[in-house]
Amino acid sequence: MTIALVLILVVVGSIVFHLFSPWWWTPIASNWNYIDQTLIITFWITGVVFAAVILFMAYCIFRFRHKEGRKAAYEPENSRLEWWLTVVTGIGVAAMLAPGLYVWGQFITVPDEATEIEVLGQQWQWNFRLPGADGQLGTSDNRLIDSENPIGINPGNPLGQDDVVIEADDLHLPVGKPVKMLLRSADVLHDFYVPEFRAKMDMVPGMVTYFWFTPTRTGTFEILCAELCGTGHAFMRGFVIVDTQEDYDAWLQEQSTFAQLSTPTKLSAVDDTRP
Amino acid sequence: MVNMVDASPQVAENISAAEVPEVELYHPKSYWTKYIFSQDAKVIAIQYSGTAIAIGLVALVLSWLIRLQLGFPGTFDFITPEAYYQFITMHGMIMVVYLLTALFLGGFGNYLIPLMVGARDMVFPYANMLSFWIYLLAVLVLVVSFFAPGGPTGAGWTLYPPQAIMSGTPGGQQMGIILMLVSLILFIIGFTMGGLNYVVTVLQGRTRGMTLMRMPLTVWGIFTATVMALLAFPALIVAAVMMLFDRLLSTSFFMPALVEFGEQLEYGGGSPILFQHLFWFFGHPEVYIVALPAFGIVSDLISTHARKNIFGYRMMVWAIVGIGAMSFIVWAHHMYVSGMDPYFGFFFATTTLIIAVPTAIKVYNWVLTLWRGDIHLNVPMLFAIGFIVTFVNGGLTGLFLGNVVVDVPLSDTMFVVAHFHMVMGVAPIMVIMGAIYHWYPKVTGRMTIDWMGRFHFWVTFVGSYLIFFPMHYVGLVGVPRRYPELGDATFVTDSLHTLNAFISVAALIVGFAQLVFLFNLFWSLRHGKEAGGNPWRATTLEWQTSETPPIHGNFGKELPIVYRWSYDYSVPGAPEDFIAQNDPGPTKEEAAR
Fold first, then answer.
1. Cβ neighbour number for residue A255 with a 10 Å cutoff
2. In this structure, which of A93, B3, B212, B226 has its CB flanked by the most CB atoms within 10 Å?
């Protein structure tokens, strides 16, 4: 008896908690509101199923609890009912999967006009690289990383000379322009995660991973690391500042390029050893 | 109503004659060979269970420390970030491998398989004994790592390289990770010896009349899980050996060119993602290695205590086998944001959501077993109901995380932590507890103390729900997992801290309720009511032994002969509300009268 009541309380309590709790996702700041919508669909379907199954069970426990003289029915199988339930479940699953796969298709299709921006994670800070005036990033390699060249840009590659290097400082992005984040790691796994952007992706040493998004509102957003990367994991923070185009241009003016950061003598020395 | 051949009471003619004469078991003479180096599956089962629960208590204490830190950050100076990562790593590894896997397969598998299929013992008793001792060695190596210089590894239970073997991670450049990998390798060797036993015993050791489709679902669940484990653990042992080489011999299986704190390391050319594929090729089946025995056991608890046959037995068997097979092609749903080829997402999201269908069928059939039953709310039944609630909840949040794009914002957040604790933490542990209350009378000959069992159930069930249901919302807000403290991100509000503190208090209370459970188990050994051979009036063979607790050899002079399926409860016209599997039932003449 008590258990039937508690089951009803579990269902009602869960729904009330969902509807009235103050804990909900951060206001979105990217184009991925499709992800939010798919999540809402999933909440609805799973919520209805949860309530239906648990309430039905509560009813069974209440209605068929042991009393003197009760005898259970003998019904080993009921193919019709079992197939019917299978089909309905299949439809419910398809109703979640179809929009999910559709949005995933968008998520992995990067628009051509997206600007490439590189993020380099290392224990435990964020570094960034923006393409310079040529609009292209130069090649890079973890083997080239040293104190003078924190991102490991290939000094022999002319495309890299005008790349803007931001070491352990905030990243600025212009609002409304799609960006493709190219993700690298110098040491261990990291994960570039800004809750307001919804998107995230691991950063893996030895390869370049990516995701894309369009910032949709200006503001300051905190970058967190979402893949365990050692004892400093929780403290590996940074900021993305989404600016209006004018503010962004002004900020960009103040940044240094790879060529400006490298002393000419150093450059030629590296050139000698690494043609 | 569909008639099942195996459900009909007059099938005595189907029993074939014994083909080979029985061989007398070797009966041990001394205390040492009887109770310590025992080859009796029942003793091995208790050794396995005792060890698993003992190391599980360590994991329980670790969970308190984790929650103390999360609920009251900055209060406990000894919980440094290093210590915190060591706590979560050891908690996860112990719970998944050394407690759940060992208890379900080594504990319940050893005790129940021979008894339930009507065998005198496992088919390879010596290998079975070795299995336990190697498991114990694995546990001891794990325990030693707590006292090694630098302490145990803090790489997270997934042990992802490169960080697992680097200096920024506790134990990465000390003994921690080495001992962890050695312990896992030992565990797998030990498990393989036991696992082969369980599989061969089910296939070859069944008594006459015990067809596969008459086996209790408990046996089906443990059998399928063991087959899966034998196929999945090799991936882990390979990964562990390769990582050990990377760490000790400076090979580069998983290690690309990298720079650690400004210093170029010697590694180059390896793939961290390769490790993740190997790990999850083991790790996802592992979820079902824990879940399938729970599915099987809970089916039997529900059927017995609702006095009704399990609904849709054949569908239940095929669902277990189907889930077991499919669980090998869903592993990369743990890796949607790992940087693997994004087109994998389409495939793995589809297989992952398809596996929800047989899983849902199992839930429907449990609930439909209650429908028109005669439900006795005994303690095992309460835990079975608690299992259904937490499993349905945790299974449904799996549909969020399995659906690739919905996983993107939730991946690596506390939502994931809440999900897997609900579905493979609380739910299987509910079954373990229900099963212990259910079979304790057979193992010891005495009932447990009822009120303590009920108290234990209510605190555990309500408390666990209060811990893990709100935790989903902590993740939805944006809190990443594996953070010893939240810092000052925008979503970190005062109310979020309050919620975290609430969860921690609930966790401490639930943890302490487990002490009541342990006390009950010890107290009832002396003070429990005498149980008799079959206190729940159940049909399966383990309740029909001539002695309780069953002696070495399980059954008396003659092995039981099985005449019917495992679920003949409340058969119309039968004198009682159950007919034991070895009850030939009325003869044709009696039935005709």
1. 15
2. B226
Distance from CA of A188 to the nearest CA of B (A): 5
Q: Dig out the tokens for A118 from the structure.
A: 């590189």
CA distance B125 to B113: 13
Three-class SS of residue A83? helix
Sheet with strand A190-193: strands edge to edge:
A171-174, A238-243, A219-225, A190-193, A200-203
pLDDT band at B9; cut points 50, 70, 90: very low
Q: For residues A54 and A263, which has the higher predicted lDDT (pLDDT)?
A: A54
Q: CATH 1.20.210.10 residue ranges in chain B?
A: 40-215
Read off the pLDDT of residues B542-577 as tens digits, 9 standing for 90 and up: 999 999 899 999 998 889 999 999 999 999 988 889
Token reading at B201: 């015993």
Inform me whether the C-beta atom of residue B57 falls under 8 Å from chain A C-beta atoms: no
Q: Which residues of chain A make contact with B409, given a CB cutoff of 8 A?
A: 25, 32, 35, 39, 195, 198-200
| ipTM field | 0.93
User: What's the start-to-end Cα distance of chain B, in Å?
Assistant: 24
Contact check, Cβ <8 Å, B169/A230: yes
Structure tokens at A94: 């398809």
Per-residue pLDDT averaged across B457-486, rounded?
Answer: 96
Residue A69 has a CB neighbour count (10 Å cut-off) of 6
Q: Looking at per-residue confidence, does A57 or A157 come out higher?
A: A57
End-to-end CA distance of chain A: 80
State the CATH architecture for A115-267.
Sandwich (2.60)
Whether the Cβ atoms of residue B307 and residue B373 lie closer than 8 Å to each other: yes
State which amino acid sits at residue B539: T
Kindly report, residue by residue over A224-238, the tens digit of the pLDDT.
999 999 999 999 999
pTM higher than the cut 0.80 = yes
**Residues near B339 by Cβ (< 8 Å), separated by ≥ 6?**
A183, A201, A202, A203, A204, A207, A209, B273
- Is residue A271 very low, low, confident or very high in pLDDT (cuts 50, 70, 90)? very low
The answer to whether the CB of A132 falls within 8 A of the CB of A164 is yes
Question: Could you tell me if A12 lies within 8 Å of chain B, comparing CB atoms?
Answer: no
Average per-residue pLDDT in chain B?
Answer: 93
- pLDDT at residue number B487: 86
Tens digits of per-residue pLDDT, B517-542? 999 999 999 999 999 999 999 999 99
Question: B408 and A200 in contact by Cβ < 8 A?
Answer: yes
The model's confidence at residue B10, banded by pLDDT at 50, 70 and 90, is: very low
* Nearest residue on chain B to A196, alpha-carbon basis: B478
A68 CB-near residues (< 8 Å, 6+ apart):
none
Residue spans of the domains in chain A: they are 2-65+78-107, 115-267
Closest alpha carbon within chain B to A77: B312
- Is pLDDT at A267 greater than 90 in this prediction? no
In this structure, whether the domain defined by B40-215 belongs to CATH 3.40.50.300 is answered with no
How does DSSP classify residue B529?
P
B370, HSE (Cβ side, Cα atoms, 13 Å): 30
Amino acid at A209: T
Contacts of B78 (CB under 8 A, 6+ apart): none
Q: Which residue has the tokens 């990377």?
A: B246
- Residue B303: φ, ψ to 5°: -60, -45
Residues B528 and B521: their CA atoms lie apart, in Å, by 9
Location of structure tokens 């051949």? B5
Extract the tokens encoding B329. 């092609």
